[in-house]
Amino acid sequence: MSGSYNSAVQAAKIYQEEYPDALIHVFDSKSAGPAQLLAAEKIAELKEKGMQFPDLVEAVTDYLENHVRLFFALKSMTNLANNGRVSPAVAKIAGLLKIWVYGWAEEGEIKPLGKGRGEKKTLAALLKTLEEKGYTGGRVKIDHADNFDSAAELHDQIRKNYPEARVDLGTCHALCSFYAEEGGLMIGVEI
Predict the structure, then answer these.
(1) What share of the chain has pLDDT > 90, as a percent?
(2) Is 159 within a domain?
(3) Is residue 113 part of a domain?
(4) Greatest CA separation for the chain
(5) More confident residue, 94 or 146
C-alpha cells in the first residue's frame, strides 16, 4: 500500500538521521499480506545463510519483482471500491449477482481477472489462473477473512496438483482483512 510504504520511507529517514551508520532499506513490495510474508521469510532465509546487506537487498528486490505475486478471491469488493482500488460499478454488479471476483495485484494495482459463481468453480478458476501466471509448485501463503473452509479447499487443490508445494494457511489481519472483507482470500505465491 502506497501510504504504508511512504510512512516506512519517512520513518527510515528519521531513524537514519539519528543513527547514520544504520543499514536500512525499505522494500516497495507493491503487494500486501501473504506476499509480504513470503518476502519476510526470504529475508530471514538469506540473512541466516550469512548474506551481506547490499546483496540481500538486491536478492530480495529481485524476488519481489520477479518471483512473488499476490492473488485474491473476493466475495465482496465494496471496501475496495470505497477506497478507489476498483471501479464502483464493477463492485456493485459483482455484489448484486453474488459473484466471486478473483484476480491479482500487478505493480501495486488490483486487477480483476475473472469471476465465478460458487466457491468450487471460483477456486478451480483461480488455480488455473495461478498456473497461467507462472505458478509451478513454489511456496504459497493463503490468508482468509473468516473463510477457513475456502482457504483449506484451495490449499487441498494446490497440494493435489503440486504435492511437494509448501502451502500455509493463515488469517488476514488489519488492513488486509478490511480489503478482503468477510469471506475473501489473499494468496501470496512464489513463481
Answers:
(1) 67
(2) yes
(3) yes
(4) 56
(5) 146
